[in-house]
Design brief:
This protein is an alpha/beta fold. The protein contains 20 helices and 16 strands.
Length: about 575
Amino acid sequence: MQLYLQKEALEEMGIYHFDSWAANFGEVTTALELTVEGSGFRFKSRFNKFTNLPELMNIFREVADVQTSDMLDLDVPDLRGGNPIIVESEPDWYVKQVMEDFVVRAERIRNGGIDPSEDNFLKITHEARLLGTDARLIDKDAPNNPDGKLNKVAENVWKEYEKARADSRIGCQLIFSDIGTPAPGKEFTVYDYLKESLIQYGIPEEEIVFIHDAKTDAQRDILFKEMRTGKKKVLIGSTDKCGTGVNVQTHLVAMHHVDCPWKPSSIEQREGRGIRQGNENSEIAIYRYVTKGTFDAYNWSLVENKQRFISQVMTSKAVSRTCEDIDEATLSYAEIKAVATGNPLIREKMELDNDVQRLKLLKSSYDNQRYGLQDNFMIRYPKLIKTAEEKLLCVKADVKTRDAELIENPDFAIKVGSATYTERADGGTQMLAAISKAKTGETTSIGSFHRFELLVEKNFMGTNYMVLRGKTEYKAELSTSPVGSMIKLENLFNGLHENVEFLEKKIEQYHHDLDSSKEEYEKPFAYETELQEKLARQFELNAQLDLENAKVADADLGGLDESKESHDSNVAERDESYRTNQDGKSR
């Protein structure tokens, strides 16, 4: 974007190509990690760390205005409760069994015992995402968990439907799911199951609609109109089809995230359907559904991390010195095992990373503000006070000159060029004539008024000013009427003393602001203790998790043969146990 919009600005800094830009603002990180297919380890270099962000954003803001929702203050509905409503579901025995299966598969992949074309981490990641929504998406014969996510969605949609009806509101709702979309030949879909469940609760079938049913633009327009009027109450759709360009916000009271999309922008697009201008409701509920013991919570954490990276850069506030991009959507073996076995360290680390990042941003804003405060009481306000005090002395001297002149020459008299005029109409006419000859963009002397030099200031906007110059200058906008201009000139002259009171108040305010800046500067960072404690804990967690990874790396890179043999036998035992369980389940 900078190359497209700011090529000259980059070249002024000596940046002529990408490598030069990357050397200034980016960093390539290299790490030893498991390959996606799980056949071993490899060193992978990624361009995913950004440095010198304050300077980068200052340059970028020369061509871009960053406007976030908190800055715009638009008339949109509030979020009910202030945060999304997290609805958790307990996994049943079948889901737990499949999660154990994922661990076994992940171990096989890691040990290179399976062809990547048959099974790999990307496939596990996809199936884990389906399992977090409903096990029947993987196996149509899987049991229907009464406490499952889809049953919770249907229940909450029905409650919101009834609540709106009790409040005499139309109450429309949106349900988002990128998984289990309707298509011919599918044995189980999220959309069909939700529709059947909602009909059983008592919502009329004609009030429930799929975005996929509208095939053409004309059909979409009719569908949106029916949602805006309340003829349809529940719209079920995916992010792609029910995101950008869908204007159905008029009567929306709730939105439901059945699944977690990969990108933060998808969440923003989904929620933007209801949190927007034109929604007649003062608040809206947003539900996020998570199945415990699956990858749901982990997926939401991944998206939260991505959003944190974006928010660090695209903000009106101070930005961090560095930040890292998160671009991986495939789960590693360690992550699969940690989530499946409920390792609390993973969850604690994610929460801790978010807290540390938040506190670092606060610290960055604090430091940035502190530099500004120091500049205020050491340079800015002393300079302003000195300038105001010098101007005050000049104004007081001019007031004395004015008072003496009014005693000596109380009658009206204005000098334009070499002639003096005692009539306001004549003086005003001559002054306007002299002004018309003055150059635009300059301040030109045209005469005098009661011992004060009279000048005119003409600008390119078409607004002209009269200026009286004594020890300092006083300005008033010029009138198009000759007499009107003379009256304005006299008022300016007679009101010189008002500048004394104005400047005295200004100096007093500057002194107060200087003291306040000094007082604020001396205040310590309120969250310093919390930040240090969390940084220490973060270091401990990283050390523990890295220690485990290091052992695995050593094993697979040729060391710890005994450990590897022991590990292989454990895997074989688990595989045998798993086959026994499967046989028992089949019988």
